[in-house]
Amino acid sequence: MKKVFLPILLGGLAAAVTWTTLNYSALRTRLLGPPTEHAGHEMPAMPAPGERQILYWYDPMHPEYKADKSGIAPDCGMELVPMYADEAEAMQGMPPGTVMIPPARQQLIGVRTVPVELQRVTRTLRTVGHLEANETKIARIHVKIAGWVEAVHVDFIGKQVQQGQPLFTLYSPELVSTQQEYLIALRGKDYLGKAPYGNVADGADALLRAARQRLRLWDISEEQIQQLDLTGQVQRTLTLYSPIHGFVLKRNLYPRAYVTPETELYEIADLATIWVNADIYEYEVPHVRVGQLATMRLSYFPGKTFSGQLAYVYPTLDSMTRTVKVRLEFPNPKFELKPGMFAEVELNIDYGNHVLVPQEAVLDAGTEQLVFLAHAGGYFEPRKIRTGPRVLVGNEDKIIVLSGLRPGDVVVTSGNFLIDSESRLKSAAGAMKH
Predict the structure, then answer these.
(1) What is the separation of C-alpha 143 from the centre of its chain, rounded to a whole number of angstroms?
(2) Spatial separation of the C-alpha atoms in residues 261 and 258, rounded to whole Å
(3) CA–CA distance, 175 with 208 (Å, rounded to integer)
(4) Given a cut of 60, is residue 39 above it in pLDDT?
(5) The pLDDT of residue 428
(6) Is the pLDDT of residue 257 over 90?
(7) Letter string b/e over residues 166-175, b meaning 16 or more CB atoms within 10 A of that residue's CB
(8) Cα torsion for 136, 138, 142, 143, to the nearest 10°?
(9) DSSP string, 393-416
(10) Which of 45, 120, 192, 301 has the fewest CB atoms nearer than 10 Å to its CB?
(11) Residues pairing with 323 in the sheet
(12) Cβ atoms within 10 A of the Cβ of 224, count?
């Protein structure tokens, strides 16, 4: 009996020990995870149903550092963050530098996004202009023979004159002698033109033509020459007439004054069109062109707008102000615009339809420009773009994107510097692996 009971007792004790050992192992595994060969580096626990599997933990400041469990990074003291299996799998199909940021962390760093838009872009370039007379419509009056002024018909600066209006009369002994020569040549042609010798008749005709041409070159009008033909009387004085419509800007002429061809007697300007010279900065020069419409406002005429166009872009740059001078033309039928005035000038620039992003969305590194595209699931992709000029749309500064984006893309406008830092760290860690 004793021999039978002892094996049974020993078998029960062994079963109890085995049961206890198994339950202790299960309890330890459940609390601490399965044992590993290296103490201090425990393998991640198997995820419970419905939980995300963690591959490893890493330092967000130094992604190359990895650990098998959560904790504190030894280098910077930051808390390690998990790398989930589904996140790593999704990142494999993403472009280099793409990062995944959970919604809670996006809110913490203040991430904001906006959609990329296709808009018609216009811009108003504002500058200050200085009004001047049209240089192509200025006449400077000189005499072609020396003499004495007999009478002055236009005798003050600012007077408006019409084309063909008498300006002054001039007595010139040389003019008197030339008229006498003309009359002698005229009578000689009538007398010698009937001679039987052809050479004599031709010589008389040539002498008459030379005398007539000399009078014309001295600004004697055809009417005055015809009057000389009809009367046969030498005119003691010569009357000079205005060659254009305009206003007298300068006058250097007085009765009984002796004048010579070197003396500028009048400066007359046609002010029916006005030139406006304005300065624009060198970076604005590519956006202006001849024929571009312009508007102008003057403080002297509140609420009134004048319309004109850009006529010329000067070929030189002012090295002190870094500006280029442009010339605009404005019609002036009522002569309200006067040389010497200052005005506010606006040039409307039409860029056409372009892709636009807010200025704060673009990270400019000098040699390249970068934006971050927001994808579903919290993924942010770095995208290089080629930018155009900066424009003002409403009250917001925006940048024209020439390539790299399409309408409908979503870009980051706030928090992109922090995203860029994480993207660069991740790219650097990836490069260290290889």
Answers:
(1) 49
(2) 11
(3) 16
(4) no
(5) 59
(6) yes
(7) ebbbbbbeeb
(8) 90
(9) ETTEEEEEEEES--TT-EEEEESH
(10) 120
(11) 281, 318
(12) 16
Q: Contact at 8 Å (CB) between 142 and 265?
A: yes
Residue 160 pairs in a beta bridge with 247
| Tokens (6 digits) for 315 | 């070929």
CATH class of 99-120+352-433: mainly beta
**CA-closest candidate to residue 299, choices 337, 346, 343, 345:** 343
Q: How far apart are CA 373 and CA 142, in angstroms?
A: 73
Burial of residue 240, with CB atoms counted within 10 A of its CB: 0-12 exposed, 13-18 middle, 19 or more buried: buried
| pLDDT tens digits along 100-139 | 787 888 888 889 999 998 988 888 889 999 999 999 999 9
* Strand (E) or helix (H) holding 221: none
User: Crossing angle, helix 222-231 and helix 198-217, to 10 degrees?
Assistant: 130
State how far the Cα of 350 lies from the Cα of 280, in Å rounded to an integer: 17
Q: Give dist(CA 399, CA 412) in Å, integer.
A: 14
- CA 173 to chain CA centroid, Å, is 63
For 326-335, write each residue's pLDDT tens digit: 999 999 999 9
Output the six-digit token pair for 247.
Answer: 């206003």
- For residue 187, pLDDT over 60 is answered with yes
The pTM score is 0.61
Beta strand 363-364 with 342-358 is unpaired
Neighbouring CB atoms inside 10 A of 303's CB total: 5
Q: Which fold has domain 135-269?
A: OB fold (Dihydrolipoamide Acetyltransferase, E2P) (2.40.50)
pLDDT at 209: 84
Across the chain, mean pLDDT equals 81
Q: How far apart, in whole angstroms, are the C-alpha atoms of residue 134 and residue 113?
A: 53
For the stretch 67-100, pLDDT in tens is 887 888 877 777 787 776 666 555 566 677 788 7
* 391 and 351 Cβ atoms separated by less than 8 Å: yes
Residues 6+ apart with CB under 8 A from 408: 115, 116
E strands, 18-116, in order = 54-58, 66-67, 81-84, 99-100, 112-115
Helix (H, G, I), strand (E, B) or coil at 48: coil
Task: Tell me the two tokens of residue 6.
Answer: 């002892």
Listed by start position, the domains of the chain span: 1-32, 41-93, 99-120+352-433, 135-269
pLDDT at 375 exceeding the cut of 70: yes
Question: Which token pair is 430?
Answer: 């990836």
Element at 302 (helix H, strand E): none
Counting every residue, how long is the chain? 434
